[in-house]
UniProtKB/TrEMBL annotation:
Biased composition (Basic residues): 41-58
Protein name: Uncharacterized protein
Pfam families the UniProt entry points to: DDRGK
Ranges of compositional bias, category Acidic residues: 22-32
Region (Disordered): 17-58
Amino acid sequence: MHAERIQQFEEQLHQELQQEIDSNEENSDNDVGEGSSTSVHIKKIGKKKGEKLKRKEAKRQYREYLDQQIQARKAQEEILEEQFRRKQLEESIRRADELEKLRKEKAKKAKQEEKEELKKQKLQEKNAKARQTKYSKYHQKIKAWVKEHKFCEVEDLARAMGLNNEDTEYILKQLCKDDPEFDLCLWSGNQFLFVTRNDYEKFNQDLKEKGKISIHEGKIYY
């Protein structure tokens, strides 16, 4: 705002100086015409004209100075405007680069998550296939073993079959799910009890007669 006021003042001063110069030139022409009668009068007019010419030259130089200042200011404003446009362009490019970087990182993360999920699914499928293979191989042996022993610890059964606890428990649960003979079996933590309908009938009879039943070391006592 201050720079604009200075510029307006200089332009106004420039106009006033130009008007004064034009007026002085007209007066100078009039003085020359009037001073043609005597040599003394011509000498005085010449001195006056010289002073006017000096003032005219000084004003001309000042006018050039003002013109130079105006042009310099315009050039400076153009430079500032160009710097501002360049800064805006650089900021726009920077934001675009950041957005592109975020997009790539997001795409990379999504791809990695998809890869991990696919890997997890393949591992689950592999484990399920391996368990199914073990089930097909061992479920009859485990079925015969628990039917014979009735009560067992999962760890003991796994050791007897040469399996780990997880696979052994999986096979027992699949038998309970798919084999009707295992419908009435009982779980208690890692303990398993093979119970048939006949066993339940005997339990009921024993409870009526003795008031209790006992399970100890894999055998059911009535």
